[in-house]
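W.,

You were right to be curious about this one. When I first looked at the sequence I had no strong expectations either way, so I just let the prediction run and decided to look at it fresh. Below is the sequence, 145 residues in total, followed by the output.
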Amino acid sequence: MSDHSPVVASAVSTGPVGQERSIGELMGDVSRDLSLLLRQEVDLAKAELKESGSRVGKGGGMLAGAGVAGFLMVLFLSIALWWGLGYLMGNAWSGVVVAIIWAVVAAVLVSAGRKELARVRGLPTTAETVSKIPNALKGNEEENR
């Protein structure tokens, strides 16, 4: 044979038993495996972002509802004040009661929205698996366990 390229025995051989593979073939396998690993990490990150995004949307919607409730509270308090100043007694208190109800609704929505936003975890699985890549590249997979 006139081929002078180095030949290394492969631990995982795709050919017949005893067939040796060149370093170029092994490097090609490593390159393909690394490319696959990075694609899988990107897919995982996309999935986690989608989940986190839906929670952010839900929490943001609750805070928007709290904003509307707060606006209505101010509106009813203004109407009650206007009516109270107009009559100095009587029907004005009904406006105050409605405004207090809206204040309670706003407080509940703010609390629920904050709790939902606090549950957003980011990309925990992606961060964990990406941190394992350097050990895997070095051949120290045992350190990842």
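Here's what jumped out at me. Residues 57 and 141 are 38 Å apart (CA to CA). And, maybe more interesting for your project: Residues 48-122 form one domain.

Coffee later to discuss?

I.
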